[in-house]
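re: that chain from earlier
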Amino acid sequence: MIRTLKVTVALIVVLVLVWDLTLSYVDAQLSQRTYPEVYDGCHKIWSSRGLYNSHDERNSITSFRRAFEHGATGAEVDFSYDVRMDRFVVGHAHPKKDAEGNYIYAKKDGAILTLERLFDAVGEKHYFWLDYKNLEHLSKEETAAAIQRLIKITRGGGLRERLYIEASNPLSLPAYTEAGFKTILGIHPLAEENVLSSIVVNGYKLAYFFNDITAVAMPYGTLERPIYGDETAAALAGIPRFLFHVPDESALLRHLLADKDVRVLLVGRDKSIDRFSETACRVKE
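^ sequence. v structure.
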């Protein structure tokens, strides 16, 4: 019994030492990175699903065009890859299937909206944060086919350099990085007040570092119970961050705009909010 206890304690000590040494190594490596390829403009507040007047108008060419006309530099877009059609279809909700097994997609502006149509309509000069809704459900072969399709529809005009592909699976995303796309690991840490918060955040950091991913994305939380608070920001130091569900509060926005590691903000949750005029640039007298 005593021997078993000693072995258990010894294993715990070794695991803690390995964990701490690994984190120290990763932090040292991250401190030397600069990420010049990641968006670092003054206009960090992008549009989430466009600037829309109704639920049905979200993720439509109309809503994205309106957001860009109001000054948004980039937009977050929900999409999925349809294996049968070999197309990327824009939309947030998981579609239902018909009797033949084909997905039934909600129409936008009278037709199914594909990434190709979206890029043709509003892709010039704008940035896109592409929220991949079904990457984790695709096989290796299907992922390879999807990558070839994305390469095909992003040729020319520097569009590929203005895309950021987000998904929550750190094992599937590197295939897109290897293909020349910028990638974002979507993470969902615990609220900072939770005693396990730092362990979860550091676990995500290791997953990011060892899987060749460009940036991380995470929800801010609420003003009362932040997920992205000072401790989390310190733990993720050196990693470019894309924040969503950011409360629409002036002091908070100014604080986050001044954070050099925060590259993009999406203000509000399930709301269409225009804060595109808020900027990280200093106003010249």
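The chain has a mean pLDDT of 91.
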